[in-house]
Every structure is written in C-alpha cells, then in structure tokens.
Amino acid sequence: RRLNRASSNGYEVGRKPDFHFHFNNVPNYAQLYDAWIANNPGNIVDMTRFYMLYLNARQVLNEQLPGDIVELGVYRGNSAALLAMLARENGRKLYLFDTFTGFDRSDLTGDDSHRDAAFADTSLEMVKELVGTENVHYIQGLFPESCRQIPLPANIVIAHIDCDLYKPIKAGLEHFYPRVVPGGLVIIHDYSSGY
C-alpha cells in the first residue's frame, strides 16, 4: 500500500501521517493528488504542504464563512488546482494573481537582490490547462498593479500567498488582509524560509 492512491509515489504506509485517514473519505483525492504533481513532480516530496493547504481550506469552507479565495504566486498551478476544486465544490470564486512568466526583475530588491529571475518555466496557458476556467479569474501582471484589472473580492475567506519574495508578499498582505473575513485564513508559504 502507498501513501496516496497514485502508484507513482514510493512513500510507504509506515510514513503515512496519522491524519491521512481524513483523505480516505475524499472522493476526488486521486484527482487532487494528480493535480498536485502535474507539471511539477518535485511536489511528490511536498505532501506536507498539500495536506496543510487542503485541511486548512476545507476547515474554513466547512464553517461556511463568506468570501472568495485568492492566490498570489501561482507558478504552474498545482496549489491553484487544489483551491479551484474546493472553490467549485463550495460555490466560491478563485482569483489567481501571477506574472505567469516568473519573477519580475523589479521585485528582486533588498534582501532578494541576489536572487535570480526564477520560475520562468510556466505560462498562463499551462496553468489554465491544469486548473480550468470555471469559477476562476486569472489576473496576469505584476502585483499589485495587476489589481487594477478587476475589482478585488469584498470578502476573502482564504488568501494563499506563495511568491518567494519580500516585495510581493508584503503587497499581498497589504491588499488582501483587510478583506479577509473574521475566521478566514492568510497562508504564507514562504514564512520563515530564510529569504
């Protein structure tokens, strides 16, 4: 038996976390897992983040808190696909903010000035193919200037920020946090990462 229902992952049952039993009752687990590793096989070793994102998002959505979901920093769309499935199941909209071309040089300032312009091996088309378009709004461009393209949701239930750089993370907090409903979540993937 494997950690997940896909046969490509070599993690044995002995390494399965205790809470994995929750996923035995998730009817679309195989689809969620396949989306998690699609175009990004390195995510196989990042199942902790998969569990964290799914369990936290499911918790606030089960509480019927109002609001939509936003993600800043989409890369190839793996976490966006998970959030999109949950958004659709719960009648929510998902707003995806990214350049869809990798880091923008203007964000490589201060502590991040030594970093290379990474994550260019993606595209809007690649992400749309994985995530789909139902209940999903794609906002391409440099954040926060890209916010001018659409009205931001008045209520945000989940804000997932995963952009690896100080400047866009700070901008994401400034724009999203005031709209997060009481009991909602702000998840910063790169918190305490050392960058």
List the helices and strands and how they pair.
Layout lengths: L28 H9 L9 H16 L5 E5 L5 H12 L4 E5 L25 H8 L4 E5 L15 E6 L4 H11 L3 E9 L7
Parallel strand pairs: 1-2, 1-4, 2-3, 4-5
Helix pairs in contact: 1-3, 2-3
Query: How confident overall, as mean pLDDT?
Result: 87
Give the fraction of residues assigned to helices. 25-40%
Distance, first to last CA: 38 Å
Major β-sheet annotation? 5 strands, parallel
Shape, per Cα inertia axes:
globular
> H/E element string?
HHEHEHEEHE
Number of H- or I-type helical stretches: 5
Which strand order does the major sheet show?
Answer: 3-2-1-4-5
Tally the beta strands: 5
Q: Could you tell me the radius of gyration in angstroms?
A: 17 Å
Low-confidence stretches: 1-14
**Proportion of β residues?**
15-25%
Secondary structure class reads: alpha/beta
Describe this structure in words.
The chain is α/β, with parallel strands linked by helices and 195 residues long. 29% of the residues lie in helices and 15% in strands. It has five helices and five strands, in the order ααβαβαββαβ. The protein has helices at residues 29-37, 47-62, 78-89, 124-131, 166-176; strands at 68-72, 94-98, 136-140, 156-161, 180-188. Strands 3-2-1-4-5 form a five-stranded parallel β-sheet, sandwiched between helices. β4, α5 (166-176) and β5 form a beta-alpha-beta unit. α1 (29-37) runs antiparallel to α3. The longest helix has 16 residues, at 47-62. It starts with 28 loop residues before the first helix and ends in a 7-residue tail after the last strand. Mean pLDDT is 87; it is low at 1-14.
